[in-house]
Amino acid sequence: MEKKVDAMKMVRRIRDSHHEKLKDRPTEERLAFFREKSRALCREANASEKDQGLADFPLSTGR
User: Fold this and answer.
1) Using one digit for the tens of pLDDT, what is the confidence trace for 49-58?
2) Which residues contact 42 (CB under 8 A, 6 or more apart)?
3) Cβ(20)–Cβ(33) under 8 Å?
4) Contact yes or no for 55/49 (Cβ under 8 A)
5) Pick from 1-5, 15-19, 41-45, 48-52: least confident
6) Which of 58, 63, 60, 25 lies closest to 41, judged by CA?
7) How far apart are CA 48 and CA 54, in angstroms?
8) What does the mean pLDDT of the chain come to?
9) CA 43 to CA 52: how far, in whole Å?
10) C-alpha torsion sign, points 47, 49, 54, 59
11) What's 59's DSSP letter?
12) Given a cut of 60, is residue 10 above it in pLDDT?
């Protein structure tokens, strides 16, 4: 049987979790949190590309 993903439920869960972690933090800490999440995602995507032989087209812009 195929599993179905409830995308809205997943997005809300992630958003609510981030809100709880960051609600009392200053703006700079919030920005740093999301920048690090973005960097980690780019590293993961680039590693996946290398595994698939697509390393000539990196996703990260190096920012």
Assistant:
1) 777 765 555 6
2) 59, 60
3) no
4) yes
5) 48-52
6) 60
7) 8
8) 86
9) 14
10) negative
11) S
12) yes
